[in-house]
């Protein structure tokens, strides 16, 4: 552990190297007695965010295929650092909130909604992070209470963001005939539909 | 009732298999019991002069007045004279093919619009029938 401590006033290896190079004839006056810790050389590469299919352009109406909102149509806003897609129903139209979805479980359609006036810059992956659970020893009673279903609490920040984003999108959606009904409807296949031959 | 469509020189056929599938052509000559020589004409239908199996074609109601082994130029003139292309496009067969093609090219939103239109149509029909029955 002593090696990890930094002692003030004592020159490190950098300074020692500099001192030795400044006077070529003499040997270095300073030599560190202790082993100086160096950061471990890491081979880990910094990963780029995963690629998102080119069919996902901001404003693309997409069909969600898995999860609680499967079959719902939603508007794609942007792709996040994690490679997930940020979508919104809009919430007012079909109940899909601002939400991250995996692009593997989404069909992009050729229909686009103009989202140039939507500001989603404040929303990133950390925005969706879970709030830390209050720590501390739980009483037995409390412990069992956890099993009971609790109503989801939506923060005021999220409420406000949802409202702001939806208002901007709805303005455009209302301008296109049938678009609101389209977003409100669920996607389904019948017996005679051939999804591999369909154009979305 | 006998047959009304024959494999004969001048018969317009619909090609339903191979690279020219979906196009129409004219029978120029009969090779044997299995195949015939057809020509679009290429300038009008895009089918080159070739020997084709009867299995790959369907006979249509249309016929152009040409001699056996007519040249491309003569064939083209015969088509123009009888206005065969317009006749084909006006037929319910061609119209159905066109509709099928259009349906296949619809986007998800378009299909939704069709669904809504269909509902409106059947609603109007149901209402009219109700009025007539009353």
TrEMBL record, chain A:
GO terms for cellular component: chloroplast; ribonucleoprotein complex; ribosome. It is found in: Plastid, Chloroplast. It comes from Stephanodiscus triporus. InterPro entries: 60S_ribosomal_eL6, Rib_uL2_dom2, Ribosomal_eL6_KOW, Translation_prot_SH3-like_sf. The keyword Ribonucleoprotein applies. Residues 39-50 have a biased composition (Basic residues). This is 60S ribosomal protein L6. It comes from the Eukaryota. The keyword Ribonucleoprotein applies. Residues 1-53 are annotated as: Disordered. Belongs to the eukaryotic ribosomal protein eL6 family.
Automatic annotation (TrEMBL), chain B:
Residues 48-121 form the Large ribosomal subunit protein eL14 domain. SUPFAM superfamilies: Translation proteins SH3-like domain. GO terms for cellular component: chloroplast; ribonucleoprotein complex; ribosome. It comes from the Eukaryota. InterPro entries: Rib_uL2_dom2 (IPR014722), Ribosomal_eL14 (IPR039660), Ribosomal_eL14_dom (IPR002784), Translation_prot_SH3-like_sf (IPR008991). The keyword Plastid applies. Belongs to the eukaryotic ribosomal protein eL14 family. This is Large ribosomal subunit protein eL14 domain-containing protein. The lineage of its organism: Eukaryota, Sar, Stramenopiles, Ochrophyta, Bacillariophyta.
